């Protein structure tokens, strides 16, 4: 054979080998992507946390699911409290029921990209990310107290029109000043406070419970010897004077220092002047009505919460059960932490295929083949915390139910049809 012809044949064979190698590599890559789909880092961390929480051995089970297309998103409000009683700290965490679950494509569900998010590449900008964060419903706060604003650059004050007060880090509410807070993501207590007992006491003929504690806090805040109640507000927030038809009830702003202002009410000053003119005999009745007309109907400092609120009554019953007999005795307890925040929750299902060891499954008949694996279905409720997804509760939603499939001859006692007794049906005169 000619040398040139041999060279052409060898070159053609090498080309075929290279083509087959590339095809096999691309096929393997596609198969790997199909069976092991990539997850965002937040979901991968969630899977690792669930695996540790379930306590399965790495070689005994295989987890599947976590399809982000089936993930449901809901918004709720979480209440966290730390109560200290007799040098024992007891944490409480309450969560309102999620009223609505939706299929929402959250930013944490998207894969990490090295490019800056913008509308051209299909990613949401940061402003739209922030708009998807849940916020608390508008509520009203009453002085005297101080508010520390974490997102000071995004703070707005409306009295009732917007006021350019610069970057506000701290706002002092004078006694009688009431503001409506909008856009806050969380409100928390900055310093522990000590509250007196008994809890269920009667003041002015009114059995108040938590409202009595609120009255004590308000009296302590008005005293010159005690520090003001201090709260921290997180999130782009706006403070506005409540909508009212009386111009005298509008708030006045006073600059005390860079980043520090005080809000006061002109009607409060008039009420104090009127109270000074009242005689000592009438001071206990009329002056109290002028200074605090809703003293025993709202929970200070959140005056927008009525004393008959179901959540408030439920928390009062919970606190009474925790205090026990001490709730009706003289003493005190400390509130170390109080945090109310709007949360985003994710509900997603997944499956676990676990290897069955000898003796783990009982109740199987001897004739039946023992299964080598068992499949369980779970549902995880997780909280979105920034760029993380923290599991809150994992429940088994579809427990395994053993179903026996038995052959007919086994059900009949393994008796052949030839040995079955012949049964003659009664004659029917209408048959031919």
TrEMBL record:
Residues 1-21 form the signal peptide. Keywords: Signal. It comes from the Eukaryota. This is Uncharacterized protein. InterPro entries: TUNICAMYCIN_INDUCED_1 (IPR053283). The keyword Signal applies.
């Amino acid at each position: 054979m000619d040398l040139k012809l041999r060279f052409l044949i060898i070159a053609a064979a090498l080309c075929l080998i290279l083509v087959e190698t590339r095809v096999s590599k691309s096929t393997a890559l596609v198969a790997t992507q199909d069976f092991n789909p990539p997850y965002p880092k937040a979901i991968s961390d969630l899977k690792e946390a669930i695996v540790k929480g379930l306590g399965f051995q790495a070689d005994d089970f295989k987890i599947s699911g976590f399809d982000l297309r089936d993930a449901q998103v809901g918004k709720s409000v979480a209440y966290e409290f730390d109560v200290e009683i007799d040098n024992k700290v007891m944490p409480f965490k309450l969560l309102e029921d999620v009223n609505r679950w939706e299929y929402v494509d959250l930013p944490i569900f998207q894969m990490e990209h090295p490019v800056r998010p913008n509308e051209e590449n299909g990613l949401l900008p940061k402003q739209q990310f922030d708009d998807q964060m849940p916020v608390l419903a508008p509520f009203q706060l009453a002085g005297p107290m101080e508010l520390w604003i974490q997102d000071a650059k995004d703070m707005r004050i409306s009295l009732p029109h917007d006021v350019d007060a610069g970057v506000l880090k701290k706002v002092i509410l004078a006694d009688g000043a009431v503001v409506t807070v909008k856009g806050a993501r969380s409100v928390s207590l900055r310093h522990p406070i000590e509250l007196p007992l008994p809890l269920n006491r009667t003041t002015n003929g009114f059995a108040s419970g938590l409202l009595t504690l609120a009255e004590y806090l308000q009296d302590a805040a008005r005293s010159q010897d005690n520090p003001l109640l201090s709260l921290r507000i997180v999130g782009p927030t706006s403070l506005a004077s409540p909508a009212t038809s009386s111009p005298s009830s509008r708030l006045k702003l006073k600059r005390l220092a860079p980043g520090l202002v005080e809000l006061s009410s002109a009607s409060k000053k008039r009420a104090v002047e009127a109270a000074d003119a009242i005689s000592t005999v009438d001071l206990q009745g009329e002056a109290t009505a002028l200074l605090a007309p809703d003293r025993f109907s709202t929970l200070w400092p959140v005056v927008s919460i009525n004393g008959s609120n179901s959540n408030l009554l439920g928390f009062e019953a919970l606190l009474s059960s925790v205090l026990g007999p001490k709730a009706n005795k003289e003493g005190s307890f400390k509130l170390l932490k109080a945090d109310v925040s709007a949360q985003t929750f994710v509900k997603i299902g997944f499956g676990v295929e676990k290897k069955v060891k000898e003796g783990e499954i009982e109740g199987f008949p001897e004739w039946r083949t023992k299964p080598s694996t068992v499949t369980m279905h779970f549902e995880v409720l997780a909280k979105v915390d920034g760029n993380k997804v923290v599991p809150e509760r994992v429940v088994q939603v579809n427990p395994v139910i053993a179903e026996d499939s038995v052959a007919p001859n086994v059900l009949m006692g393994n008796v052949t049809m030839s040995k079955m007794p012949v049964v003659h049906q009664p004659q029917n005169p209408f048959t031919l």
